[in-house]
Amino acid sequence: MKNFRYFNVFITIFALIFITGPVKSCEKKCREGISDAFADSWGPEIAPIFDDLRTTVTTSLFFDMNLDDISDEWKVIDIVTRELATEVYNQINDFKNTYLRNMSTVIQDSIFNVLPQFKGNCNDPFRVKQPPLGVNWTSQDCERMDYICGNPPSICHFIGIAKQKCFNSLIQRIIDNSDTNGIYIQAIQHKVKTIADKHSLAYDGTKSITKSITKVVQNSLYEFPSYFKSRFCPDNCLQYDEDIKLLLLSYP
Question: Keywords in UniProt for this one (predicted)?
Fold first, then answer.
């Protein structure tokens, strides 16, 4: 009788896993699709924040600069300051475009690799039945999948956790890039040096404009992470969730 009970348990497990089919994880196409959907939705929320940084920096670029340090010739001063303003403007646009271009990768890593990871077995305990190929998951599947694992309904159920991990990573990327030795200030300093070399500025002139512009940019970058955090999805971008859930549940 005892062996018969074990046999029944085995048959039940076999039926759940092999007859109905194991519940699959969010595969490559699913991971990329969901990450792109978040990035496409949130990108327009982020772009104006970089535009504000660009405006803040470019409008105050020469406030602390002694223009006479650049050259004795006004024509040279005019050309150099115009080029500096243009290059800084373009460089901050590049920061924005690069950040937006890399968003999907950051989001995918956040959802599937940062703890708690949306990975692993979704069959134990059993909650949802894998739909046939070509049939979407349902909102009921989203509700029933009440533990974190790798399938689309789990991400749907815990979309708030998935999003918060993404928010944290995206903000951390801004913090790292805006550091006093981060890639943003280094890129602008490189632009300044390139312009100084192009116009054969004296050592003191190059040193003066580099110091002045570095100070202006670093002051703005010091405030930028806090500004970014306060402006980026202050309402958690809830308006995009339903469309993203529908997309998510369309993946096998």
Answer: Signal
